[in-house]
Amino acid sequence: MRTRQERIFNLPPVVLWIVALLAAIEGLSQLLSPEAYLEILRRFAFVPGRFTFAFDPDRVSLAINSIADDAGLRAQAAAFFLGDGKPQWWTPLTYAFLHGGWLHVGMNCLWFAAFGSAVARRFGAPRFLLFCAVAAIAGAAMHYVTHMTDLQPVVGASAAVSGVMAAAVRFVFQPGAPLGESLGFAERADEDIAYRQPSLPLREILFNRSAISFLCFWFLANFLFGAIPMPLGVTDATVAWEAHIGGFLVGLLAFRWFDLPAPPVAFPL
Questions:
Q1: In a 10 Å sphere around its CB, with 0-12 CB exposed, 13-18 middle and 19+ buried, how is residue 178 labelled?
Q2: Top-confidence residue, 20 or 64
Q3: Would you say the C-alpha torsion 166, 220, 237, 15 has a positive or negative sign?
Q4: 3-state DSSP call for residue 265?
C-alpha cells in the first residue's frame, strides 16, 4: 500500500515565502545601527500624523507642542517622524513588513502560518496576497481613525494576521473542514475538499460553538495586547489593538469577495 510522503514544511509556498521574507527583513534590521533603523522606520513605518498634517498641520503641531514641556525627548522623536510632513502613501502597506524584534515577528509568523495556510489553500496565491494587503491597509486605516495626530511609528504584520484569522473562521469549523466535524470519510483522497467546504454565513457565526469560542479567545488576546503593550525596539513602536480589529473586521466581512463559489463535494460510495 502506497502512503503519501508528508513534507517537512507542510505550508503553501506563498505562506512559506512570506514568513521567510518577514524573518529576512527582521534579520537585516538587526544588523543596522540604531540610526539607520530609525531612518528605515521613518521611511516605511506607518505614521498617522503625517497624513493628518497634510490637511490640518495646526492640529498636529498642537499635539507636538502639548508634549514638549514635560517630554522634550518625545517631542523631538515626534518631529523626527513627521519629517517634511508629506504623507507617504506606501506606508499603510510597508509597515506590515517591519517588526520590533524576533519575539514580535516570531509570534506573527506562527499565527500567520497556522491560519494563513488554510486561507491560502482556499484562495490561491494571487487572491491571498491581495487579501493580506487589504487587511494590512485596513489595519492602518483603523489605527489612523483613532490616532490621527499620533507621530509614533506603527509596525508589524498583526493586522494582516488578524485578517487571515478572521477569514479562517468563516470556513475551518464547517463539517469536513480542517477543524470541523469529520464527515466519516475513511480517507480524504483530495485534501482540497477540506479547504473548499461552504463558508459559514455571518449570521450563523454566533450559533457555531467553535467559531464563537475562537472569537472570544481572539478578543481576549487583543484586550491583553491593549492592556500590556509590547515594546518594539529602540522607538517603543507598537502595533495597537485598533489595527488588529481593522484587519479582523475586513477578514470577516470581505471574505466573500475573495472566495470563489465552493465546488460540489463528492462523497465516496
A1: middle
A2: 20
A3: negative
A4: coil
From the list 223, 209, 230, 242, the residue with the least C-alpha distance to 107 is 230
Q: Cell numbers at residue 237, please?
A: 513602536
Residue with cell 504623507: 87
- Residue written as cell 500590556? 228
Question: Mapped to the 3 state alphabet, what secondary structure does 159-200 carry?
Answer: HHHHHHHHHHHCCCCCCCCCCCCCCCCCCCCCCHHHHCCCCC
Q: Mean of the pLDDT values across residues 63-72? A: 66
Mean pLDDT, residues 101-128 taken together:
92
212: exposed, middle or buried (C-beta count within 10 Å: 0-12, 13-18, 19+)?
Answer: middle
> pLDDT (tens digit, 9 = 90+) per residue, 45-61?
999 999 999 899 988 88
Q: For the CA atoms of the chain, what is the radius of gyration?
A: 21
Q: What is the mean pLDDT of residues 132-136?
A: 97
**Cβ atoms < 10 Å from Cβ of 21:** 11
Domains and CATH numbers, the chain: 13-258 (1.20.1540.10)
- Indicate whether 7 pLDDT > 50: no
Q: How far apart are CA 231 and CA 239, in angstroms?
A: 10
User: Between 165 and 206, whose confidence is greater?
Assistant: 165
Helix H, strand E, coil C: the string for 199-221 is CCCHHHHCCCHHHHHHHHHHHHH
Q: Does the pLDDT of residue 23 top 60, yes or no?
A: yes
Say if residue 19's pLDDT is above 80. yes
Contact 151, 53 (CB under 8 A): no
pTM greater than the 0.85 cutoff:
no
All 3 cell numbers of residue 43? 521611511
